[in-house]
Structure formats: structure tokens, C-alpha cells
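Could you help me review a protein record that somebody else here produced? Here is the record exactly as it was handed to me:
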Amino acid sequence: MAQLKQTSLFQDANLQSYWRLENDYTDEGGNGYTLTPTNSPVFATGQYGQGVDFERGSSQYATNTTVPNLRIAGNQSYVGWIK
């Protein structure tokens, strides 16, 4: 499986975080922006490896509110695989 770490995008100086969500909420982008889960979302088998299952309740999420670089201000780009 190709991962972001193996692309030139991962080397972009503007990349703020990279969460693979492979059984943890660790930021692999190098900035240490680990997420904190709320209301116990669970990990589930995905197309490739693991993913987080937020279907179990609408109040489940993962966030990091202490990092100013993750606050939305101006134009931003997001990449994700959601099914």
C-alpha cells in the first residue's frame, strides 16, 4: 500500500499533521499533534489496514484543540479517504 510518507507531499514544509489511524491517534507528520478521542470511537478493519469507526454514535470524534496550527484560518486543503 502506498502511504503519504512515500510521496513528495509528505516532504512539504506546510504539512501540519499526518494521522494514519492504525490503532492509535499519533501524528506521524513530525509535529506531535496527537489526537484525543471523545466518546470512545473504535478502530475497525479498513480497505487497507485500520481506520476509525465513527458510525457508532454521532457524538464520537477525535481532536486536538491545543495546537494553534490546526485552527482553521483562511484557505486550507484536506486529504482523506472516507467511505
In short: The mean pLDDT is 76. The chain is about 0% helix and 15% strand. Strands lie at 36-38, 42-45, 50-53, 61-63. The first strand starts at residue 36 and ends at 38.
